[in-house]
TrEMBL record:
Upper lineage: Bacteria, Bacillati, Bacillota, Bacilli, Lactobacillales
Cellular location(s): Cytoplasm
One Gene Ontology molecular-function label: LPPG:FO 2-phospho-L-lactate transferase activity
Gene3D superfamilies xrefs: CofD-like domains
Name of the protein in question: Putative gluconeogenesis factor
Function: Required for morphogenesis under gluconeogenic growth conditions.
Gene Ontology BP terms: regulation of cell shape
Any one of the GO CC terms: cytoplasm
Family: Belongs to the gluconeogenesis factor family.
Sorted UniProt keywords: Cytoplasm
One Pfam family this sequence matches: CofD
Superkingdom field: Bacteria
Amino acid sequence: MHSAPKIVVIGGGSGQPIILKGLKKCHVDLTAIVTVADDGGSSGALRNYLNMVPPGDVRNVLSVLANVDEEIIDVFQYRFNSDDDMLAGHALGNLILASIAEQDNSIFSAVNRLSKFFKVQGNVFPVADEPLILHAEFTDGTVLDGESAITAAGKKIKHVWVTPQFTLDEHRLPEAPSEVVNAILNADIVVLGPGSLFTSIMPNLMVPNVAEALLATRAKVVYVANIMTQKGETDGYSDADHVRAINEHVGERVVDAVIMNTAPVPDDYIDWKKWNEVSKQVISDPEHVRSAGAVPVVGNLLELRDDGAFHDGDKVAQLIMKIAEAKNID
């Protein structure tokens, strides 16, 4: 049997678990690197109350990669009702992560312990062992701090960056643990996305030693292009525009291939009130993807469910595996 390819998936939000769930079924050595810049919902409240890394995205990744009875995961993922006073809206798994992180004084250690409890397939690494603040400069020249505020602004973003939330040195840069850097350097494939470009993917890439590792690695860097644009943030963006934004933020061309959906999203299917952050289908532009220095890898990757448009994680995983097995992707 061939050795399992080492695949690292970088991201956050709801898109990353979909891809991880598909890759979990494949013969792979899997690592998930998860953003720690979220400041909304239960994660944001715990972050503010306990001065801890927001646990929500990490919790969802652990749940997907766990190899325990589904009943255990259902309990871990349980969210308290909105009328439960101080527990309202909190996911039980977030509270468990918070308690272990407080006990160990480290979210990285807490995730490692829970990974063993849940018999996680592969590795789950928060991109930093401290909460990060996401900052954005918009094209109108204004600046906002905080992922939730940036998303709510609904304005076109020019540039984002991250800083440590708690520091006495305003010049101190965030730093990923050595496990994160080594996973990227030793990978065969590094997958970016899918997910909100500026608020789920970029916060990871803006950690300086993560960007350096992406530029130094011999791995093929694959971007899974979003199916839908996000209001304000990426309105009118093609898949090539997403690639250019990633390359510009990292500082050099880093994306080698782009996995792109070819199936049209029916206009009358999406519940626009339920999925109020999305706007229109991302413009497919293989020619300009090539001009950005990346190879288009296309397929019908659309899954219509819950009145929304999502990636079919199994189909995306199959394309990632084909890239991993190929000697070249030109």
